[in-house]
TrEMBL record:
Domain N-acetyltransferase: from-to ranges: 17-185
Keywords: Transferase
InterPro entries, per the entry: Acyl_CoA_acyltransferase, GNAT_dom, N-acetyltransferase
Organism name: Actinomadura harenae
Gene Ontology molecular functions: acyltransferase activity, transferring groups other than amino-acyl groups
Name used for this protein in its record: N-acetyltransferase
Top-level taxon of the source organism: Bacteria
Length: 191
């Protein structure tokens, strides 16, 4: 089954970065930052064992949604875009197929604070609303993951929900969760 990202011409260049589809060859580069404690703390599915990470990374469905962020030929992070259907009543359900997306990101901490994540996520939003024609994007995080929700705000996403202790963290227990979203009509077209 084809993935919506298959329809795009890769790679995509931004001012400083290159975005491309992930390949099995990206395993070690992504493991290098994903196994760091400060990254491991917030990712949705974290493994501390290389063999477990390799098995998860190489699954076809895992690679399908994953994009690599490169700076000067080196991998500095990754993005995900999962396209899905919107909720709809039966009579109009066909119009709700594949119209929404959920964004995710992970950046090597050594590349943080330089605007790379913002640049990469903006480029992904451009693709989602432009080439893919999605109507709505959303992203979620723990309230305690301030770097993530600040990024959502920097790219213009709107906080839609602050839920009290609804999100279970692997070591911190029940934490507050945040949901952000953006509609295509709210996104300025790329220059």
């Amino acid at each position: 089954m084809s993935h919506p990202l298959d329809t795009l011409n890769w790679p995509i260049s931004t001012d400083r970065l290159l975005l491309r589809r992930a390949t099995p060859d990206d395993l070690d580069a992504t493991w290098a930052y994903r196994q760091l404690p400060e990254v491991h703390e917030w990712v949705g599915a974290a493994t501390t064992d290389y063999d477990d990470y390799r098995e998860r990374f190489l699954r076809e469905e895992g690679l399908a949604d994953l994009l690599i962020i490169e700076l000067d030929g080196g991998v500095i992070g990754d993005l995900t875009l999962q396209v899905h259907d919107a909720w709809a009543q039966d009579e109009v359900a066909d119009q709700a197929k594949g119209v929404q997306g959920e964004l995710g990101w992970t950046l090597d901490p050594s590349s943080g604070g330089k605007g790379y994540a913002t640049e990469a996520v903006r480029a992904l939003i451009d693709l989602a609303f432009g080439s893919l024609g999605l109507r709505r994007l959303q992203a979620e995080c723990f309230y305690d993951n301030e770097a993530s929700w600040r990024l959502m705000e920097r790219v213009g996403m709107r906080r839609e929900q602050h839920a009290v202790r609804d999100s279970l963290h692997r070591t911190k227990g029940w934490l507050d969760g945040l949901s952000y979203a953006l509609l295509a009509e709210e996104w300025p077209a790329s220059e």
